[in-house]
Amino acid sequence: MDRWTTLAELFRPRAERFSYQGVVRYEIAVDSIATSVPPLLDRRLPPLSFQSSLNGRERDSVRRASVVALLIAIGPGAGATSSLAAQEQNAAPPAPPTLQRPVTGPFLGGVPFGDLTQDVETVTVVQALTRSLEHNLGVLSAQNNLGRAQGTRWRALSDLLPNLNARVSETRQQINLQAFGFGSGSGSPFGEVPPIVGPFNVFDARIFLSQTVLDFGALNDAHAEAHNVEAARHLNQGARDFVLYVTGTVYVQALAMSARADAAKAQQQTAETLYNQAVDLKRSGVIAGIDVLRSEVQLNTQTQRTTIATNEFEKAKLQLARIIGLPLGQKFNLDPNLPGLPEPDISLDEAVTRAHQTRRDYLAALERVRAAESARQAVIGDALPSLRVNADYGAIGLSPSDSLMTYSVSGALTIPILQGGRIKGRLLEADADLRNRRAEAEDLKGSIYYEVRTAMLDLDATSQQLTVAGKARDLAAQQLTQSRDRFAAGVASNIEVVQAQDAVAVATEQFIAAQYGQTLARAALSRGIGSVEQMLRQLLGGPR
Asked: C-alpha distances in angstroms, 514 versus 26, 27, 463, 474?
């Protein structure tokens, strides 16, 4: 693989998948920091890494191959040797980290709603969050799943509740009495009765009642479905927390990409100014032509970075528009003024304990365990005796006018004796399902600890990085100013200027990553504890 192919791979967007069935890890790369997002899914996604297997010099050569080639062409002079050594210490800025935007999945989809306008709307983060609760496909699917679970529970309850039916019939028939034992042979007491009776009419209007008095299998089936309804209700609320977290993450990442695009444009303008300055100095005979070539290479590099950063920002906006269900083609801007998230003042043990009490996905997992236990009891109940009562009451006669009232009541006790191993097979299946549900709940309980712990580590790291990155950005800007002055005075070549430009790019990227990474870390901690929607209510100023 040649170096330019490697460079293209570094700028290639990554994508992973969302799902919504159990426990998930959704990871967002912010420079060298991977912010873990632990929602409701059934598998762990590997973290996206932007690190290369190349060493420092090789990585620098890949990203600034043209500059290195020009420096080699100069020859092994003292200035070139020192510049190459300095390049090893100042790596070029990495490709803009991109959010792992899954191409499919309900939480990255939405139902477009509203009328398309020609105005450019400004969508704040609070507006995006509230809109996602109404139009995101993941939330709508969770609501529908709750309705389906409630319907399944009512079907299970129907085996325990009274079943009342009415029937009205009119029958015209002709009967052969000999088929009922009324023979007309020799010595028969019914010898004078004709074997064929009719035709005649029978009118019957009747109400039928069926009621289960005792059925342990049906009773435990109803209990199992009640637990499934509670699990679906928790998952519905958990979907709301999850989509708030996803929307907020995508919004913050879009702002970070916007900041990267603005920084790249500023660096492009600086590179253009330095190129024009180099051209003027060459015309004046102050510098050599190689300095102009270096400036032109740097200008092309910054132009490419600007194009990539702008494209990534626009794609992030499209993803956000889909999540919150904006009308197709609606133009909008983002509001960079994010509301301040509260500083977490909680220990790790307290956070984990609260998460076990409030995380909706964990509460749903516990309800699924109870549902599996009730389902197992239902299998055992099907092997026990059951009692059922049937009754009917109505009028019967040749016609409605001469009908008489009749009724019947019957009770049936069913005792299973031998069912060919069906109960044993169902019991083995129920035991396996119960073990799976318990294992899932324990795994989720452990993952909550790691999610909360990871969020706290990221929060501490980004807080420290933000302080250092701010100072590094200021120092890099001063370095660039001094390098430009030295170059304009003819004291040094523009190698120092190119290195200073790269240092500014690296420092700016690190500052952006730390600034927005801290916001993401706070949101990740709220998500890990299970208080995302509560935090949104605080931002809105009360319950909504």
From this structure: 19, 16, 7, 15
Answer yes or no: are the C-beta atoms of 29 and 50 closer than 8 Å: yes
Sign of the CA dihedral 358, 544, 245, 137? positive
Domain boundaries along the sequence of the chain: 110-152+221-371+428-540, 161-214+384-417
The CA distance from 360 to 24, in Å, is: 13
The CA-based dihedral angle spanning residues 245, 247, 248, 251, taken in that order and rounded to the nearest 10 degrees: 160
Domain 161-214+384-417: which topology? Outer membrane efflux proteins (OEP) (2.20.200)
Residues in the chain: 544
Q: What is the pLDDT along the chain (544 residues), one digit of tens a residue?
A: 444 444 334 334 333 333 333 333 333 333 333 333 333 333 333 333 333 334 443 444 334 333 333 333 333 333 333 332 333 334 344 444 444 444 458 888 899 998 899 999 999 988 999 999 999 999 999 999 999 999 999 999 998 999 999 999 999 998 887 787 776 666 666 666 677 888 889 999 999 999 999 999 999 999 999 999 999 999 999 999 899 889 988 999 999 999 899 989 988 998 898 889 889 888 888 888 888 898 899 899 999 999 999 999 999 999 999 999 999 999 999 998 888 776 777 888 888 998 999 899 999 999 999 999 999 999 999 999 999 999 999 999 988 888 999 999 999 999 998 888 889 999 999 999 999 999 999 999 999 999 999 988 988 888 888 888 888 888 888 888 888 888 887 777 778 888 888 888 888 888 888 888 888 888 888 888 887 777 776 665 544 4
Query: Cα–chain-centroid distance for residue 319?
Result: 13
Provide the sign of the torsion angle of the four alpha carbons 343, 348, 354, 360, taken in this order.
Answer: positive
Q: How many CB atoms lie within 10 A of CB 54?
A: 14
Instruction: Report the CATH fold assignment for 110-152+221-371+428-540.
Output: Outer membrane efflux proteins (OEP) (1.20.1600)
